[in-house]
């Protein structure tokens, strides 16, 4: 007991010195030049050795339910080793393998947690169980960087009782840099189709399908498929979301949110969905639609995209990465796909790109089982210095990135080639890029460099092939994102991330709605055109059994709550 | 110990009039070796199987794992109501029973027939080869197997469609997984394909117990192959068949989960969704432990009824029975 | 494995028949039967071998290329990349060792204990016979649920211990019943003569019943071994934070999940820059799943020859019994 107390005391002293040391560091390193020396130059190394005399090394456990990677000790990675030198803290990392609800459920039932927990989708259950300790005081005492980085979002981070239980990841620091490539939704079409049509500006759904139709008809002997759609299991949203985007909204899930009244409206039973399905029905009647779309699993879908026989499809970029990578690998630019911001009518401004959002229902928290919350908090805070953000995103200067005479970060061909999957593991990018307190996607450093290498223009340009450059040039764009309209400000975004209580009415509504759309969409699309109307009526009839108004009200309330929180800084 | 046991044997016989209870204990003392051989496992059984049954109380609560037992909110039969009153319950139950019955009948018949046919193969090496190969699909996970099945059934160059077209049975490729009525059949055949070889193992083991002298006698009597199968092999494995059948009838509400989940889709959902999938969607996926437990209890009750009925029937028919 | 056992049985039978000259086998009906049977078996082999061959082909094919589909019997772009990705994992070796240990120990313990209980409930005069039988059988149809089971294991102190692989599965009821059915099928005369020789119940069980039941014990051993080898849920629930107790199946699950995650990370926006060059050693869940299947199933399929000699022994004793 006494021993324990003494340990705690030393730890606290150590912690104090560490804080002062760290804040000193960030003080001196706050200019751009010094920002690049996280590789451990003489100055820093000296501080570290000095610290290690007093600072006992500790190992904490962390369970990560969000990302899969090898289970390791963080100090076995290059980044983790450097962080350990700075703080004396090592993490024994475990990642989720099976079902998240089962694993978290057993943790809760036995009230036995790792020190740090990243519960991903089960975060509500964890908070509900009282497994996270309030962080307010800890942040006040040990979190200067957390305060700086999360300042504007502090209100949104608070639970109903005023406590902050976890630290989210998605806050944008500095000027927002949108993703240059399309990882979000788009209507995609094979590049050869655009080429043959003379690179037309495609704006509306009708234009899109006319182009597809023309191409398929001109190339009858090639046995082409005009359009396919992904419907497999939970990925069904790739088929049910387009009406929202076609009407000029970003991906808010089941609803579109009016920009002036902030009313949430379900669109699955509205005209937009009807228009979309009627179009697909029409396309099917013309023999352009692949009927197997409603039966194929994800692998079969990717196989079809990769076959080069499919002219167009709608999907989210992140979902077809396997296929687009494989096509890029194959090297035939004609068969690769090009994203188009298609809407119902030409006057609608497209909103395919995600606005900077603040996902407030995912994060990392310190559990009631934690041995030394203060030290953990210091570690978390220390991650949020500019130089440690550079370290965990760009790596070490001269090894994984370079700086040109203008202070711009870039990577050489060799560096890009070097950073493969196993390098990301041994270096530690894989462990510290995600799921730890960080500058959120699209953040930039004070000097204008992007925090994430992928969003740095220099890095992106290097990733483009000649073919990419040619087609982008035809459309007068430098990046794919240039083709799309800039996202409007939506402080609640994304509505699909609003956390729902387990088994709540909202959650049950979503499950029922999914069942209904999964069952009726195939019928509607594959119906004979003259039977579409009556089928639609039948669908509406079923849909009316759901308490959609309550769901809309619930979402609207959540939206308004978030807007309010965002305004009270 | 034999020494101690022997007086016991002697004392039992002359006391026909004692009531049952002392007799029972007397016998138990006599049979203490048997008791010693089984009692530790009874304790094991109690701890590992019966003790966790306190968990059934969860079905009557709005269970939250974080709360202690006394803090849980009790809701009575709420979750059972939710289960039984859902408009899809009947359909889901129908699909479950239909698929498990098909699986049961198809599974038994094919495994037994295959075991009998294997037993008739005369080239030992060939027989071994067939046996080994036939149970390989058992080692392939359903995820992989479902992919192979979906590819085979695909209208785009799927082998089944190609074959049927080549044979002239059909003119146009069929969207097999898109026709709800086909699903039960597809599911049943998939199960057979995956497990028939594996399921023969137990029957083949049973056949080793058949006295070879019987075959010799039959041969002398001039019985043919089919007759030998019918009169010797089949009766020889009948006890095992009956016991397995009774056990499996108890499982009629377990129609499997993975193939239905992996091969099911929006088009065939009316025929593919079974009880387990329903519980997954509304129970586990929503963190509603209570609903899953309620569904489990429902299944147990039905299982017991089926089990005792099947066992009773077997008893009445003079067949070997489970207990 | 069971096939060895049965084929051996068959081979002894076959030998006997052949010794006798087997006059009947020459008849026309027999020949038609045999031919049809062989053709049927060949067809069956084609259908059941295909999934394995297909999986093998996918596992040996370039992962990026496999996305295109259309791999049937052989790889299109041969590579060992998928295997090197799996075996690159430092934990695989230790995990394989634990898998072997749990399979071997678990199988021996389970078979022995199940046989012992099976023997007691096969004794017609045992007063607890019916009680024990029903007590066991009922447990096949219920389950206390995940949380109570977890808490039980925790309270027994079996979290992060090897024994959690063995003790909760000491007796499989299905196996128990199968063994009982066989023991009941043994000629009562043998057990009777043992008793006359003054053998107690345990001696009868160990010296007479066990050896005579070798064919069924081998069957049950096969079932148990496959079950032990394939389980990973108990690792996930109870031992996931103790890497030293991880098993092959669980590590393979991890690798699969890992390949899943790295794919989505690659395709997700911020990692896009890395995605391009990472193509060179890209793995996909599709390919890794195929590779896993081969890696995990080949060892257990190879267990078969080791069970074989017990079948042979079983048969010689079994032959005597007739």
What does the secondary structure layout of this molecule look like, with pairings?
The complex is a heterotrimer of chains A (569), B (323) and C (322).
Chain A: H1 2-28, H2 32-35, H3 42-54, E1 58-64, H4 78-87, E2 89-95, H5 100-110, E3 116-118, H6 123-128, H7 136-142, H8 144-150, H9 154-157, E4 185-190, H10 191-196, H11 205-218, E5 225-228, H12 237-240, H13 242-246, E6 255-257, E7 264-266, H14 271-285, H15 298-307, E8 310-316, H16 321-330, E9 337-340, E10 365-366, H17 373-383, H18 386-393, E11 402-403, E12 409-410, H19 413-418, H20 421-427, H21 429-432, H22 457-463, H23 466-474, H24 505-526, H25 532-543, H26 548-567
Parallel strand pairs in A: 1-2, 1-3, 5-8
Antiparallel strand pairs in A: 3-10, 4-8, 4-9, 6-7, 11-12
Helix pairs in contact in A: 1-3, 1-17, 14-24, 15-16, 24-25
Chain B: H1 2-12, H2 20-30, H3 32-50, E1 61-62, E2 73-74, H4 78-85, H5 89-120, H6 124-134, H7 142-153, H8 159-166, H9 183-207, H10 212-220, H11 225-249, H12 258-263, H13 269-272, H14 275-282, H15 289-316
Antiparallel strand pairs in B: 1-2
Chain C: H1 2-19, H2 28-59, H3 63-66, H4 81-87, H5 92-122, H6 129-138, H7 146-155, H8 173-185, H9 188-196, H10 201-212, H11 214-230, H12 233-238, H13 248-267, H14 272-278, H15 285-302, H16 304-321
Helix pairs in contact in C: 1-16, 2-15, 5-8, 5-11, 5-13, 8-11, 9-10, 11-16, 13-15
Structure summary:
By secondary structure, chain A is an alpha/beta fold. Helices cover 46% and strands 9% of the residues of chain A.
Question: Could you describe the 3D structure shown?
Answer:
- The complex is a heterotrimer of chains A (569), B (323) and C (322).
- Chain A is α/β, with parallel strands linked by helices.
- Chain A folds into 2 domains: 57-174 and 360-442, 3-Layer(aba) Sandwich (D-Maltodextrin-Binding Protein, domain 2); 185-352 and 463-567, Periplasmic binding protein-like II (D-Maltodextrin-Binding Protein, domain 2), CATH 3.40.190.10.
- Chain A contains 26 helices and 12 strands.
- Chain A has a 4-stranded mixed sheet with strand order 2-1-3-10. A 4-stranded mixed sheet of chain A has the order 5-8-4-9, with helices on both faces.
- In chain A, helix 4 links the parallel strand 1 (58-64) and strand 2.
- The two termini of chain A are 44 Å apart.
- The model of chain A is unreliable at 1-54 (pLDDT under 50).
- Chain B has 323 residues and is an all-alpha fold.
- In chain B, strands 1-2 form a two-stranded antiparallel sheet.
- Chain B folds into 2 domains: 25-73, no CATH class; 77-316, MetI-like (MetI-like fold, Orthogonal Bundle).
- Chain B has helices at 2-12, 20-30, 32-50, 78-85, 89-120, 124-134, 142-153, 159-166, 183-207, 212-220, 225-249, 258-263, 269-272, 275-282, 289-316, and strands spanning 61-62, 73-74.
- Chain C has 322 residues and is an all-alpha fold.
- Chain C is built from 16 helices and no strands.
- Helix content of chain C is 72%, strand content 0%.
- The relative contact order of chain C is 0.14.
- Mean pLDDT of chain C is 81; it is low at 1-24, 264-281 and 312-322.
- The chains are: A alpha/beta (569), B mainly alpha (323), C mainly alpha (322).
- Chains B and C meet through helix 2, helix 3, helix 5, helix 6 and helix 7 of B and helix 1, helix 2, helix 5, helix 6 and helix 7 of C.
- Chain B: Residues 93-310 form the ABC transmembrane type-1 domain.
- Chain B: Pfam families: BPD_transp_1.
- Chain B: Keywords: Membrane, Transmembrane, Transmembrane helix, Transport.
């Amino acid at each position: 007991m006494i021993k324990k107390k003494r340990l705690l005391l030393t730890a606290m002293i150590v912690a104090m010195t560490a804080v002062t040391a760290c804040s000193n560091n960030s003080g001196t390193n706050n200019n751009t030049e010094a920002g690049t020396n996280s590789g451990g130059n003489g100055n820093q190394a000296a501080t570290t050795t000095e610290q290690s005399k007093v600072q006992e090394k500790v190992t904490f456990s962390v369970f990560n339910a969000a990302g899969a990677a090898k289970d390791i000790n963080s100090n076995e990675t290059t980044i983790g080793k450097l962080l350990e030198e700075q703080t004396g803290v090592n993490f024994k990392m475990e990642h989720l393998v099976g079902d998240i609800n089962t694993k978290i459920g057993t943790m809760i039932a036995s009230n036995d947690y790792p020190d740090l927990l990243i519960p991903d989708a089960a975060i509500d259950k964890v908070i509900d169980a009282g497994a996270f300790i309030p962080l307010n005081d800890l942040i006040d005492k040990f979190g200067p960087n957390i305060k700086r980085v999360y300042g504007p979002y502090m209100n949104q981070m608070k639970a109903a009782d005023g406590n902050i239980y976890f630290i989210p990841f998605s806050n944008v620091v500095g000027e927002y840099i949108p993703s240059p490539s399309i990882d979000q939704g788009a209507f995609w079409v094979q590049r050869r189709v655009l080429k043959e049509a003379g690179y037309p500006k495609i704006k509306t759904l009708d234009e899109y399908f006319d182009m597809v139709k023309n191409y398929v008809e001109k190339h009858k002997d090639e046995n082409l498929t005009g359009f396919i759609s992904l419907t497999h299991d939970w990925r069904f949203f790739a088929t049910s979301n387009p009406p929202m985007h076609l009407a000029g909204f970003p991906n808010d899930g089941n609803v579109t949110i009016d920009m002036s009244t902030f009313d949430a409206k379900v669109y699955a039973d509205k005209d937009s969905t009807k228009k979309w399905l009627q179009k697909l029905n029409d396309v099917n009647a013309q023999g352009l639609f692949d009927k197997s779309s409603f039966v194929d699993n994800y692998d079969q879908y990717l196989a079809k995209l990769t076959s080069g026989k499919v002219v167009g499809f709608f999907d989210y970029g992140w979902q077809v990465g396997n296929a687009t990578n494989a096509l890029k690998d194959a090297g035939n630019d004609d068969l690769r796909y090009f994203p188009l911001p298609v809407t119902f009518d030409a006057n609608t401004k497209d909103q395919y790109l995600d606005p900077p959002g603040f996902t407030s229902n995912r994060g990392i928290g310190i559990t009631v089982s934690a041995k030394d919350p203060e030290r953990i908090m210091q570690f978390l805070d220390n991650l949020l210095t500019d130089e440690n953000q550079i370290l965990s995103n760009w790596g070490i200067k001269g090894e994984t990135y370079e700086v040109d005479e203008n202070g711009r970060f870039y990577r050489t061909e060799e560096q890009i080639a070097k950073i493969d999957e196993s390098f990301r593991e041994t270096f530690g990018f894989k462990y510290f890029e995600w799921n730890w307190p960080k500058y959120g996607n699209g953040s930039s450093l004070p000097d204008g460099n992007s925090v994430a290498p992928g969003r740095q223009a220099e890095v992106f340009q290097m990733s483009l092939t000649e073919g990419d450059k040619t087609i982008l040039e035809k459309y007068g764009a430098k990046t794919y994102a240039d083709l799309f309209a800039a996202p409007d400000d939506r402080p609640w975004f994304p509505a699909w991330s609003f956390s729902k209580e387990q088994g709540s009415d909202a959650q049950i509504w979503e499950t029922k709605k999914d069942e209904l759309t999964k069952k009726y969409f195939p019928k509607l699309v594959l119906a004979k055109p003259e039977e579409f109307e009556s089928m639609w009526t039948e669908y509406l009839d079923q849909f009316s059994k759901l308490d959609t108004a309550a769901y809309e009200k619930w979402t609207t309330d959540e939206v308004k709550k978030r807007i309010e929180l965002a305004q009270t800084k | 110990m034999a020494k101690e046991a022997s007086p016991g044997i002697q004392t039992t016989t002359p006391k026909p009039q004692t009531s049952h209870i002392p007799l029972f204990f007397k016998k138990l003392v006599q049979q203490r070796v048997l008791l010693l051989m089984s009692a530790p496992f009874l304790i094991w059984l109690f701890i590992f199987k019966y003790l966790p049954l306190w968990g059934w109380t969860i079905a009557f609560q709005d269970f939250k794992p974080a709360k202690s037992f006394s803090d849980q909110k009790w809701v009575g039969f709420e979750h059972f109501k939710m289960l039984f009153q859902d408009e899809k319950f009947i359909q889901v139950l129908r699909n479950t029973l239909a698929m498990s019955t098909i699986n049961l009948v198809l599974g038994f018949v094919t495994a037994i027939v295959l075991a009998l046919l294997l037993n008739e193969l005369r080239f030992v090496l060939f027989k071994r080869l067939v046996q080994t190969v036939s149970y390989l699909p058992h080692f392939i996970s359903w995820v992989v197997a479902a992919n192979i099945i979906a590819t085979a059934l695909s209208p785009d160059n799927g082998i089944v469609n190609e074959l049927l077209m080549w044979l002239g049975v059909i003119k146009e490729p069929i969207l097999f997984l898109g026709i709800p009525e086909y699903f039960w059949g597809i599911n049943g055949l998939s199960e057979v394909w995956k497990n028939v070889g594996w399921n023969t193992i137990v029957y083949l083991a049973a056949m080793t117990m058949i006295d070879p002298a019987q075959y010799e006698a039959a041969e002398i009597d001039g019985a043919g192959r089919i007759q030998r199968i019918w009169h010797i092999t089949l009766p020889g494995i009948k006890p095992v068949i009956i016991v397995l059948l009774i056990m499996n009838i108890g499982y009629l509400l377990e129609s499997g989960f993975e193939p239905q989940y992996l091969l099911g889709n929006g088009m065939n959902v009316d025929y593919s969704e079974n009880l387990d999938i329903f519980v997954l969607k509304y129970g586990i996926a929503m963190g509603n432990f209570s609903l899953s437990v309620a569904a489990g209890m429902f299944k147990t009750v039905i299982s017991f009824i089926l089990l005792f009925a099947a066992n009773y029937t077997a008893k009445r028919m003079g067949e070997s029975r489970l207990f | 494995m069971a096939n060895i056992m049965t084929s051996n049985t068959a081979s002894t039978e076959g030998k006997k028949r052949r010794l006798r000259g087997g006059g009947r086998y020459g008849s026309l009906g027999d020949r038609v039967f045999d031919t049809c049977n062989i053709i049927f078996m060949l067809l069956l082999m084609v259908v059941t071998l295909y999934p394995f061959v297909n999986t093998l082909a996918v596992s040996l094919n370039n992962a990026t290329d496999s996305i295109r589909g259309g791999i049937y019997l052989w790889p299109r772009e041969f590579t060992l990349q998928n295997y090197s990705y799996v075996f690159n994992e430092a934990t695989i070796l230790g995990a394989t060792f634990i898998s072997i240990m749990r399979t071997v120990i678990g199988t021996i313990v389970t078979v022995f204990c199940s046989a012992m209980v099976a023997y007691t409930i096969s004794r017609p005069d045992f007063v607890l016979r019916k009680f024990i039988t029903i007590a066991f059988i009922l447990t096949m149809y219920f389950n206390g649920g995940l949380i109570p089971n977890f808490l039980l294991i925790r309270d027994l102190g079996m979290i992060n211990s090897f024994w959690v692989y063995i003790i909760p599965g000491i007796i499989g009821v299905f196996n128990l019943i199968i063994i009982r059915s066989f023991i009941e099928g043994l000629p009562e005369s043998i057990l009777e003569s043992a008793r006359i020789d003054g053998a107690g119940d345990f001696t009868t069980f160990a010296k007479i019943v066990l050896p005579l039941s070798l064919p069924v014990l081998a069957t049950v051993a096969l079932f148990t071994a496959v079950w032990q080898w394939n389980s990973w849920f108990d690792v996930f629930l109870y031992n996931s934070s103790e890497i030293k107790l991880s098993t092959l199946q669980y590590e393979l699950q991890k690798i699969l999940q890992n390949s899943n995650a790295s794919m989505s990370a690659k395709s997700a926006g911020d990692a896009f820059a890395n995605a391009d060059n990472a193509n060179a050693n890209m793995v996909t869940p599709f390919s890794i799943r195929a590779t896993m299947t081969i890696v995990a199933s080949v060892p257990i399929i190879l267990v078969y020859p080791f069970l074989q000699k017990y079948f042979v022994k079983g048969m010689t004793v079994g032959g005597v019994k007739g």
